[in-house]
């Protein structure tokens, strides 16, 4: 009764340009092989990455798709052959092969990932692979750490120290908020102390937390924000300033490496702080997987909450990806869903995230059209919003979609 192929929806899913609202830089050519390539499709590390991740459905699927991209013959489509082939390619050629078919018009890059400054290219370098200029997402924990390291160590009291840290941090955040290249901010509170961010706190608790962090810094020369009252205090500063300057704030939620406490990575913990800052736009990253339904609920009941449905490509199996997107759509207003690759380090991460997510969007919405829950025109318009228009509006990018971007 219904056609197996919907041309209008297919054009939206497979050919419409995309704004990648959350990604990280590519490695420099010098460091192209510095990190284990298996990190392409897995958040595991150590033995779990080296020994086990290659047996996931995500790896098998990625292997097949990359073998096809690199022109490997049947029988050569295995993981080791893929790694050997990519190593034989000129780096600029490899980047072009992966980025050109992705359909990415603009990338918003979080350049605060550990090791970025030593191993990766600067954000502007990526402009050669997009049709619109790359913009920055400022990681607030990095700004706090760098700013603190530059401060004198001789404050007379912890109250004085907190005052100096606060003034310095606020100045750095305001400077970023006034920078046209900065599209928004990001917090990794999920990794450091969890998403149960307190909407308020006492000076006494913050000072105690700062003293602990500062004592550790003087002893180890490492200022790492893993002290909850201080972390929450700095996040609140950013939420206030970001609300004033209309810059969205991204939060890592859900899926991540084993440095997170999984039970504290659910965005449900964020309800109090979301309520406390109604003028600030919150963006929940990574589909909040495996807490996608909780994230969908938050987008449905709070005007200032949006959901990014990235990183599950290519980290989940195809069935897992479809299920996660369906869960997100159970409650979420479709104008509050933002596409991303969470691409990082390797150009293949952008390629795989793009082709897999586009296929999933087609599959999920084609089912809706077949069941007469949406018209094909409505489904196509929703996909175009998810890929491009919602991010363009939310971040104030002012871009016009380049409709012939995918070759």
TrEMBL record:
A GO MF label: hydrolase activity
Ranges where the Amidohydrolase-related domain occurs: 236-382
Top-level taxon of origin: Eukaryota
Gene3D superfamilies noted in UniProt: Metal-dependent hydrolases (3.20.20.140)
PANTHER family per UniProt: AMIDOHYDROLASE 2 FAMILY PROTEIN (PTHR43383:SF2), NODULIN 6 (PTHR43383)
Protein name: Amidohydrolase-related domain-containing protein
């Amino acid at each position: 009764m219904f056609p197996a192929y919907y041309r209008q929806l297919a054009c939206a899913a497979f050919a419409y340009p995309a704004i990648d609202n959350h990604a990280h830089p590519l490695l420099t050519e010098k460091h192209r092989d510095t990190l284990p390539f298996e990190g392409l499709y897995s958040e595991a590390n150590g033995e779990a990455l080296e020994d086990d991740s290659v047996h996931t459905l995500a790896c098998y699927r990625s292997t097949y798709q990359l073998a096809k991209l690199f022109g490997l013959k049947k029988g050569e489509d295995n993981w080791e052959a893929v790694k050997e082939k990519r190593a034989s390619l000129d780096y600029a050629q490899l980047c072009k092969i992966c980025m050109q078919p992705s359909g990415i018009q603009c990338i918003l890059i979080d350049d605060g990932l550990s090791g970025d400054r030593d191993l990766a290219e600067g954000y502007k370098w990526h402009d050669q692979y997009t049709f619109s200029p790359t913009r920055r997402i400022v990681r607030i924990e990095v700004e706090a750490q760098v700013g603190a390291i530059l401060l004198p160590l001789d404050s007379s009291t912890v109250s004085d120290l907190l005052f100096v840290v606060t003034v310095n941090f606020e100045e750095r955040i305001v400077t970023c908020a006034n920078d046209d290249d900065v599209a928004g901010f990001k917090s990794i509170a999920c990794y450091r102390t969890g998403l149960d961010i307190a909407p308020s706190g006492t000076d006494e608790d913050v000072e105690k937390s700062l003293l602990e962090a500062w004592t550790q810094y003087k002893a180890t020369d490492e200022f790492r924000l893993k002290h909850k009252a201080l972390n929450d205090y700095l996040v609140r500063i950013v939420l206030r300033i970001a609300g004033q300057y209309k810059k969205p704030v991204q939060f890592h939620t859900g899926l991540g490496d084993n440095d997170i406490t999984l039970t504290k990575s659910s965005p449900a913990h964020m309800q109090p702080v979301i309520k406390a800052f109604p003028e600030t736009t919150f963006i929940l990253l990574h589909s909040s997987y495996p807490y996608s339904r909780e994230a969908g609920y938050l987008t449905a009941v709070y005007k200032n909450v949006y959901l990014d449905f990235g990183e599950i490509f290519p980290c989940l199996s195809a069935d897992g990806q479809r299920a996660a997107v369906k869960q997100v759509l159970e409650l979420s207003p479709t104008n509050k869903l933002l596409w991303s690759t969470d691409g990082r380090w390797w150009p293949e991460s952008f390629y795989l995230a793009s082709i897999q997510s586009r296929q999933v969007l087609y599959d999920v919405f084609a089912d809706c059209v077949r069941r007469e829950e949406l018209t094909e025109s409505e489904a196509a318009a929703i996909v175009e919003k998810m890929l491009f228009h919602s991010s363009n509006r939310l971040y104030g990018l002012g871009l016009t979609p380049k409709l012939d971007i995918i070759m």
